[in-house]
Specification:
alpha+beta, SH3 type barrels, 5-stranded antiparallel β-sheet, globular
């Protein structure tokens, strides 16, 4: 996983319609519509866990914080607990927050 600044830059670019996060989960030349509230997505259930195998979980985007993310050059004075763009309600009921590069559209 990249640095927090890289993630924030990716999310800011996605919010402006310029980054790969807007086309998350696409392949080839086909362009999917941008991710939005109400879309079903797949993400790692616990990406920070270093224990064992990480599993994917599906959920629904319930909020988009793209327009409230700090500027690309924001200095929080820390590299942990950085803002994430998407609030996702997982199918098991948990609420998680993810950057655009941490979500994809389900396949199949």
């Amino acid at each position: 996983m990249g640095s927090g600044k890289d993630s924030a830059e990716s999310d800011k670019a996605s919010a402006a319609g310029k980054g790969p996060g807007k086309q998350a989960g696409t392949s080839g030349g086909a362009k999917a519509p941008p991710l939005a509230v109400g879309d079903t997505v797949v993400t790692k259930v616990d990406p920070a866990s270093g224990e064992g195998e990480q599993t994917d979980g599906s959920g629904v985007i319930v909020d988009d914080f793209g327009d409230t993310l700090a500027a690309d050059d924001a200095d929080y004075g820390r590299s942990w607990a950085l803002a994430k763009r998407w609030a996702i309600k997982l199918d098991d009921g948990r609420l998680v927050f993810r950057s655009s590069d941490e979500v994809s559209r389900p396949t199949g």
